[in-house]
TrEMBL record:
Domain of life: Eukaryota
Domain GH16: 1-218
Matches recorded under PANTHER family: GLYCOSIDE HYDROLASE FAMILY 16 PROTEIN, GLYCOSYL HYDROLASE-RELATED
Name of protein: GH16 domain-containing protein
Family per record: Belongs to the glycosyl hydrolase 16 family.
Length: 218
């Protein structure tokens, strides 16, 4: 299967994403049945991480989430990032995934940013679970399990959050909440005078724009 979405990103403190989630949790609850993030990007124009990278509108990522439980999510092994110095909010871009019985390939504007091709032991071996003492939830599946079931499309917008915006990143105007705060969502809302003016509500710049979503059988 080949799946393509053409979209133009906004520039606000919003995360935009294009996901695939399992229609049925065949192998158990998240992330045992998998999650495919074809693209995720933060809406900040100048969000700079501790290494000096712009991780806002100049970065997009593609990720597979999989593991036996939330504590064993091995997404780090299947996470790929791509920088665009112009900024992904400036023009339309194409985010793509090719999904076969042997591999999953992530692309942006027809350029491959990452490929996942599990060996004979599948994702169980890729995650180095063999000697963990954990029961293999994908034992009855194919080489690509848990990514061998039906998934559905999610076009996602998320505001704030306690995992995607690092506390140690530098953002003009600051960040009105801490990821460790027990009331992070309340702190975010109470700080709206700090971030709401940057949304430029009178324009289309704050909106997520999608031109098309296309799916082909390979």
């Amino acid at each position: 299967m080949s799946l393509t979405v053409s979209r133009k990103l906004h520039f606000t403190k919003i995360v935009s994403a294009f996901w695939l989630l399992p229609r049925m949790n065949q192998y158990g609850g998240w992330p045992a049945s998998g999650e495919i993030d074809i693209m995720e990007s933060r809406g900040n124009l100048n969000l700079i991480d501790s290494t000096g990278r712009n991780i806002g509108t100049k970065m997009s990522s593609g990720t597979l989430h999989w593991g036996t439980s939330t504590n064993t999510n091995k997404y780090q092994l299947t996470h790929f990032e791509q920088l665009n110095l112009e900024g992904l909010n400036e023009n339309w871009h194409i985010y793509q995934m090719e999904w076969t019985q042997e591999s999953i390939i992530f692309k942006i504007d027809n350029q491959t940013i990452g490929t996942v091709t599990p060996s004979q032991g599948g994702f169980w071996e890729l995650g180095n679970f063999e000697n963990s003492g954990i029961v293999n939830p994908w034992k009855s599946g194919s080489l690509m399990a848990p990514f061998d079931q039906e998934f559905y499309i999610v076009i996602n917008l998320a505001v704030g959050g306690t995992s995607f915006f690092p506390d140690n990143a530098n953002n003009p105007g600051g960040k009105p909440w801490s990821n460790k705060s027990p009331r992070a969502s309340g702190d975010f809302w109470e700080g709206k005078t700090q971030w709401l003016p940057t949304w430029k509500m009178e324009t289309n710049d704050q909106s997520l724009q999608v031109d098309y979503v296309r799916v082909w059988a390979l």
